[in-house]
From TrEMBL:
PROSITE patterns: ACT (PS51671). This is UPF0735 ACT domain-containing protein CLCY_8c00370. Belongs to the UPF0735 family. NCBIfam families: PRK04435.1. Pfam families: ACT. It comes from Clostridium cylindrosporum DSM 605.
Length: 148
């Protein structure tokens, strides 16, 4: 029996077909008020109205101010003194709020940490925050697990 329920994924824009990127550009243009009419916005980015309507309800920005903004990330951290503390300070400095922390005991000098972060008052983009976290000493990787 086939399951007709939608499945949702978080996907890097680097691997998406260009049409999805253009649909997001149209949504941004309309949301910012650069264009008032869908027809003008789709012409600006080079897609048809039918393409826009086909995909507009199927793709969303990871950071959308009109939605609740809780993101759960998984970090792989080297077992280095102060690494998690620096990350938490960095998150707070950018007006994000850590809601939950789950840290496993380090194995092979690597600790897995999951953080749920409320980002509605963030003073920069999600991508900039993630880049800042990933550039910290001791951070091996950051992966987005979910967004609510």
């Amino acid at each position: 029996m086939e399951d007709n329920k939608d499945k949702y994924y978080i996907v890097s824009s680097n691997v998406l077909p260009e049409v999805f990127i253009k649909v997001m550009e149209v949504k941004k243009i309309l949301g910012e008020g650069t264009c008032d009419k869908i027809n003008d916005a789709v012409k600006m980015v080079g897609i048809s109205r039918s393409t826009y309507y086909k995909y507009k309800d199927s793709i969303f920005d990871l950071y959308d101010e009109r939605r609740d903004n809780i993101i759960t990330v998984m970090l792989m951290l080297e077992h280095v003194k102060g690494t998690l503390s620096r990350i938490l300070d960095l998150i707070a400095k950018h007006n994000a709020n850590v809601l939950t922390i789950n840290q496993n005991i380090p194995q092979n000098n690597i600790a897995m940490v999951s953080l749920s972060i409320e980002v509605s008052n963030l003073d920069e983009s999600i991508e900039e925050l993630f880049d800042s976290i990933q550039s910290q000493l001791g951070v091996k990787s950051l992966r987005v697990l979910s967004k609510f």
